[in-house]
Amino acid sequence: MTTTNPNFTDAEYEARIARTRAEMELRGLDLMIISDPSNMNWITGYDGWTFYVHQAVLLPMEGEPVWWGRGIDGPGAARTVFMRSPDSIVPYDDTYVQNPQKHAMESLAALIVDRGWNTGWIGVEMDNYYYSAAAHQTLVNHLHEARFEDGTGLVNWQRLVKSESELLYMRRAARIVERMHRVILEVAEPGMAKNKLVAEITKAGIEGADGQWGDYPAIVPMAPSGLDATAAHLTWDDRPMRAGEATFFEIAGVHRRYHCPQSRTLFFGSVPDLYRHAEEAVLEATEAGLSQCHPGARAEDVANAFNAALNKRGFEKDNRCGYSIGLSYPPDWGERTLSLRRGDMTELKPGMVMHFMPALWLEDGGLEITEPVLITEHGPEPLCTTPREIFVK
User: Where is the Peptidase M24 domain (predicted)?
Assistant: First the structure.
């Protein structure tokens, strides 16, 4: 079997597998069925827009991982995974694709039996976008000797501390999102149709920056204006942008699936006092939160410091103010592990990267001034240099 060069060395993939197996051993698992495409990529290097059909990486306690997926995607696996053995890529027949008469997990169950992995404890990612109730029920029905355990997040938590190679990709993504924000400032103007602006943002993101290409984001640009910006996750339409309205842009630069999200707010015309007060509160609270971003602190320490400062200014934020980021696929660029909120006792360690997300939604609009932040031995390192302020034109 021939491959192109995966994004990381064999040694890095082997180290990731060793960390994952150590956690599997602690939980008494003999096999992990990994269906989250981000986790599949992190373990093997596999990269393809194939998560709309059933696919998985099987990780036993010994030997190479096994990629399993649709037959026509087998060559894509051979082009991207680090494994060399032909036995490590197992395609299934296309008659299993979206066929109400049979389910692809019947093929996976047969593979597990064939490899002799059907009599132990099997971990599955139960609370995952890509692992359906029907998929689980089919496996249970066909693997009577196996015992299933919920392994949701098992791989995700091993991804929390980034390697130097991963950080290189995230720094490249940071340069890309900086460029995307510059493009917004250059081309946005009252009367411009929102879809035209989003097209320019997307173009800049894919063109990349500093000679490094841009990958597709796990989340499309969020760019609501005016009252639409009182909601957190609206996208765009063709309405023209207007003077006297705020628009926030929640976007990410992406390189080799590694995301660096950053948000800024643009206002056409004179900024109302409410927005200036909110800006001052957010910036002050951001500094308070960042002061807690050092090794040994807890995730909740960051949130508590942020919220205390924000509340003193007369504002409240009733949702988390950040989360871990890194490698991801649609529909979410978060890693679904650490959250910056009260009660999250995750210890911060060097190499963790978070999207510090102190967004506020006001009565007539929204304000987002966010930062991707790396935890280092010496404290927080914002990955971007985009000015931390409301942009005004």
Answer: 170-377
CB 98 within 8 A of CB 78: no
Q: Establish whether the linkage from the previous residue to 100 is cis, with ω within 30° of 0.
A: no
**Using alpha carbons only, how large is the chain's radius of gyration in Å?**
22
Longest Cα pair distance anywhere in the chain, in angstroms? 69
Q: Which ranges constitute the DSSP H helices of the chain? A: 10-27, 37-44, 74-80, 104-114, 133-142, 154-158, 164-187, 194-207, 273-290, 299-312
Question: Which tokens sit at 302?
Answer: 């960051």
Spatial separation of the C-alpha atoms in residues 292 and 304, rounded to whole Å = 9
Q: Are 65 and 88 in contact (CB under 8 A)?
A: yes
The tokens for 119 are 């009599």
* Separation between Cα atoms, residue 326 and residue 150, nearest integer Å: 23
**Which tokens belong to 271?**
């900024």
- Note the helical H segments in 8-47: 10-27, 37-44
pLDDT tens, position by position, 199-237: 999 999 999 999 999 999 999 999 999 999 898 899 999
Q: Within 10 A of 243 (CB to CB), how many other CB atoms are there?
A: 12
- Residue 124 bridge partners (DSSP): 33, 150
Q: Which residues contact 67 (CB under 8 A, 6 or more apart)?
A: 40, 44, 46, 55, 56, 57, 77, 81, 83, 88, 89, 90
Q: For residues 132 and 138, give the distance between their C-alpha atoms in angstroms, rounded to a whole number.
A: 10
* Euclidean distance between CA atoms 36 and 128, whole angstroms: 7
What three-state secondary structure class fits 324?
Answer: strand
pTM comes to 0.96
Q: Could you read off the pLDDT of 231-241 as tens digits, one per residue?
A: 889 999 999 99
DSSP assignment of 46-105 equals ---S-TTS--EEEEESSS--EEEEEGGGHHHHHHH-S---GGGEEEE-GGGTT-TT--HH
CA 156, 162, 163 angle in degrees (round to 5)?
130
Query: What pLDDT does residue 1 have?
Result: 47
- Ramachandran assignment for 336, one of left (phi > 0), alpha (psi -120 to 50 degrees), beta (any other): left
